[in-house]
Each structure stands twice: as structure tokens, then as C-alpha cells.
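We give the entry.
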Amino acid sequence: QVQLVESGGGSVQAGGSLRLSCAASGNTRSITSMGWFRQAPGKEREGVASIDSVGSTTYVDSVKGRFTISRDNAKNTLYLQMDSLKPEDSAMYYCAAQRWFVGTIATMRPGYWGQGTQVTVSV
């Protein structure tokens, strides 16, 4: 099993920044890809960004140039740096992980999820 615990959410004004963190524990050896997903009220969950074991990243178009995903394999920690935040970025953000996966955030189907951390961006 793999446990994922997010932190770093909060409230910020439009144009501001937040950094999310996700600490992974348990049997993480075969985890190749990790990612961030988000879900706003009344909307479907969407993939935001992913990163594989060699550091290759993919992003949904709406966050390209504003968000940066990274991981520290030694610390088993995933990050999402969010800059130039917009009100439409407001959502619950979830950390996710998948074993033996090579692909993009659009095709990622995680088997492990965190509990989520709320991000609220006001005008």
C-alpha cells in the first residue's frame, strides 16, 4: 500500500502563488508516475500535472506556464508550484500515484490518492 498526504493549500488572491506538497509513504518502490488532480464543486475531476520517475512532466493546457510539478525522490515528496493563480483554479487538489505507468496526465489512472487539500483563489 501507498499513503499520500497533501499539504500547502489555502486561500490566496488572484495573481498570487501557492505551493502544494505531497508526502508518500509505504511501498513506493514501483511508483513511477505521480500527479496532481483537482475537482471543483459541480465539475468532474481533472488531471492537472504529472511527473514520471525520470522527471518528465506533462500539464493540462489551462495551467501550462503557470504551474510547475516536481518531485524529490529521496524524500518521497511531490510538489506543485502554482503561480499567477486565477479564480478558476479554485478546487480541491489531490495527489495521486500510479505503479508502472508511462504516459501523460490525460491518460494517468492512479491507483492511490491523497485526501485532498483545498485551494481557493479570490478576485
User: Anything to note?
Assistant: The first strand starts at residue 2 and ends at 7.
